[in-house]
Predict the structure.
Amino acid sequence: MFDFIRKHTKVTMALLFLLIVPSFVLFGLDGYNRSGGNGVAVAKVDGKEIGQSEWDRAHQIEVDRLRASMPTLDVKLLDSPQARYATLERLVRDRVIAAAADKFKLATSNQRLARELQENPEIASLRRPDGTLDMERYRQLLGSQGMSPEMFEANVRADLSNRQVLVGIGASGFSPKSAADLALNAYFEKREIQVARFNAADFAARLNPTDADLEQFYKANEKLFQAPEQATVEYVLLDVDTIKKSITVNEADLKTYYEQNAQRLGGAEERRASHILITSPKAAPAADREKARAKAEELLAVVKKSPGTFAEVAAKNSQDPGSAPNGGDLDFFARGAMVKSFEDAAFSMKTGDISGVVESEFGYHIIKLTDIKAPKQRSFEEMRPELEADLAKQQAQKKYSEAVETFTNGVYEQSDSLKPVAERLKLEIKTASNVTRQPPAGATGVLGNAKFLNALFAPDAIEKKRNTEAIEVAPSQLASGRIVQYLPAHTQPFAEVRGIVRQRWLAQRGAEEARKDGVARLAAWKAAPASAALPAPVLVSREQMQELPPPVIDAAMRTDASALPAFTGVDLGAQGYAIVKVGKVLPREAPLEAVAGQAHKQYAQWWTSAESLAYYNGLKERFKAQILVAKPVPDNANAEVGATQ
């Protein structure tokens, strides 16, 4: 089908025009936005799908949030399959909670919303001395995050409503002292035990398999010796850094940029002023406003007559509690730090000048300019390195934006080769061999990006060896690749994996022999306890495991203590077998009252967390929450699989 489209572009465009335009008339753009705009469904909650693009956006927001809080963090670590899956789980959780809030009609009042906004520290920092909110700075703050005040407040309202879903469970969590003591006493109880280990490695060292044994094991367990599908690939990467290397900044452009931006790059002028404030909010009655102005005029006459007394008059009469104790001193400030009327007056004065009465929303000010700190004007040569870097970055970003469309169209229109787009944009074609569908643990860059690898190993890309679409693998980074040679998953020949077959045979047979000997010894020692050959006893608890395997501790603590001594056997899987003899039970020592109280609180928190989790799992079932993509295998599991190949 794609071949037909490429060969008959004009015919295809005409057909599409006839098909698409009427549908826009009938359904409008919204219909297209609602259907399929999110890509392939990756999860479903309450009958509504979560698409791939929504997942991608949520993960990018999470990455940006972590980068902002931890600037030194390597963002490539956050693009692992496990990190992306965790984002999807959070997305599903949020959707489940939102569905519950809607179903249960949980709403947030305007008063509760206002209280939440007042308690927000970022918003609190935007308040003026009189307590009013600087709306302009508020809009700027939200605008930098891509939101309007209405959008932000709607999000906060929804978040408050969603919190109510689980808050009832958390607030009602209760654990009786008797139940807490029962659980804590069992947890801190100690037992005196003796452990005999039957290690698989010791038994394996005595075995000597024949070739026939190994071949038989190989044939019975061929799946253990599968080599994953692999490919030799080539790819190109379009990014700002690559473009930046090819840019040479023109000397004339550099000087023009210096002339236009020297003042901005050199820093902003700052001014230092003192003021006397007579407060009078704009909402105050007109009579009160006039009274405040008259008071300011009286004080202005005093300081005009005797400028040297300004600090003394300010300390005695100014109603600004922050600056009055310092004689009205406001320290240095740049443009944008003060309200406009105050700023305009201060930046129009000369050092030592005293203004007239300046009106603002706070009241009436008398300003004295005490100092001017002009930015140091650096020479062109001094600023050359940062000017070059700044201008090169701007030009690279512009060139990248222009190249995106060329790159995207190029890898699609000439899909059987990356050479044309690489030559057009002067990009390097890179090659890699033994590339697998799953990125190796710790892999970074293009070949560590799961989204890119999924596209590379798509059926059409494998079969026809076509270019992938242009894929954003990182901010301002597009990549496209193609498979040059493909090797499907296959069972490796016995001769190639003979050493691994032998290791696995020894591990399995060693564990079997250890288990067989351990079971026989357990039966014999139970029949004749005095014949048991055991090491010195040790005291253990669930808290103090004495470096013993968790299954051994679990078996020791579960053993019936009504008839001691008691023997029990523990299958340790690949590690072998263990026999545990429980000799004594030592009850938990009575803790100090403060310690006991803290333990009860901790237990209550655990119990509440367990109840909240159980309630959330119930909501997941109720709203039929499903994650439709496979959970990635942990890195340690990948390593174990890799070791068998």
